[in-house]
Amino acid sequence: MTNAYIRGTGFHVPDRILTNADLEKIVETSDEWITSRTGIKERHIAAKGEAASDLAAAAAKKALADAGMEAEELTHILVATVTPDCYTPACSCLVQAKLGLTHRIAMDLNAACSGFLYGLEQARAIVALKPEAKILLVGAEILTSRTNWEDRTTCVLFGDGAGAVIISGEPAPGTGSGRPAGRILDSLLCSDGSGADLLVISGGASSEPYATGQVVGPSHYIRMKGQDVFKLAVRSMESVCKDILARNGLSVDDVDLLIPHQANSRIIEAVGRKLGVAAERVFINVDRYGNTSAASVPIALAEARQQGRITEGSLVLLTAFGGGFTWGASLVRF
């Protein structure tokens, strides 16, 4: 099978920052309450009129520069999102247009917070079929468009942003940053729809269509049973990480950096602790961005590379858990 390589990474977040102190003025909460339960101190919020495709295109341009590539070289555009600009056309088509391209394969994926990992597997499959392919994969979300600011248990959690990677069958870094390319060693993905009602946005979709003039209700926004999701997230990410390491003949000691979905610090710390990964080998940036769903892992991956946390030879373990439920893990050797 043709190897698939991550040749470049990039991320983009909106300029506006919403701090915990700001949230204290909006809803009954406090910085201490939010920080102690989530580890989040601030999150970035999209400006009025700023859409997921805007964030995705900006992140894509940074990933292309990092890979030393021009947009014209791309053959495929994949966007993982639960908050696209509109139902149709796909966010990926709008990103394509904003990059000045036409006649490419473009499609969206929806696997909630696991969307980027599902996209990695899709990209690997494309490269296996078409070794000459050069793929843009973006995780992009404007979750604040589906956040109920009257629900203090959920509104403190989410932020907006986009992370992007360039994937191809060639490892050459080109004329970009010169950072090492990462070979995708393996991916393991799972899902279970029996818990769908524990984390859901249903209002306005085919199961709960809105009539003209109808008042938008709570079902339009993120609804989550936090304690149930917490337990499932920790258990599922721990299990899938152990499984992917075992089937590749690796142990936790071989992992140089664990990059989990940035849902909240307590989940991240619990996963690291149960896996036996030392805290210094677990990447955390949820304190500055909040939960950005499908954008979470690629933002963290791009930032980790920028900070020098990933160097030549590093084995990186990515893992995520999201609505569906979906979860998974990927191994990347840089």
Q: Would you give an account of this structure?
A:
It is a single chain. With 334 residues, the protein is an alpha+beta fold. The protein has two domains: 5-168, 3-Layer(aba) Sandwich (Peroxisomal Thiolase, Chain A, domain 1); 182-333, Peroxisomal Thiolase, Chain A, domain 1, CATH 3.40.47. It is built from nine helices and 13 strands. The chain has a nine-stranded mixed sheet with strand order 5-4-6-7-1-8-13-12-11, sandwiched between helices. Strands 2-3 form a two-stranded antiparallel ribbon. The longest helix is centred in the last third of the chain and has 22 residues, at 226-247.
Provide a short characterization of the protein structure:
With 334 residues, this protein is of the alpha+beta class.
Characteristic key phrases:
9 helices, single chain, 334 residues, Peroxisomal Thiolase, Chain A, domain 1, alpha+beta, two-stranded antiparallel sheet
- What gross morphology would you assign? globular
Distance between the termini: 19 Å
Question: Strand portion, in percent?
Answer: 15-25%
The CATH architecture designation of the largest domain is: 3-Layer(aba) Sandwich
Name the average pLDDT.
Answer: 96
Radius of gyration: 19 Å
Low-confidence stretches: none
Number of domains: 2
Structural class: alpha+beta
CATH homology-level superfamily of the largest domain:
Thiolase/Chalcone synthase
Work out the helicity level: 25-40%
What name is given to the CATH topology of the largest domain?
Peroxisomal Thiolase, Chain A, domain 1
Query: What's the β-strand tally?
Result: 13
Number of helices: 9
Strand order across the biggest sheet? 5-4-6-7-1-8-13-12-11
Largest sheet, strands/sense/barrel: 9 strands, mixed
Overall CATH class of the largest domain: Alpha Beta
Oligomer: single chain
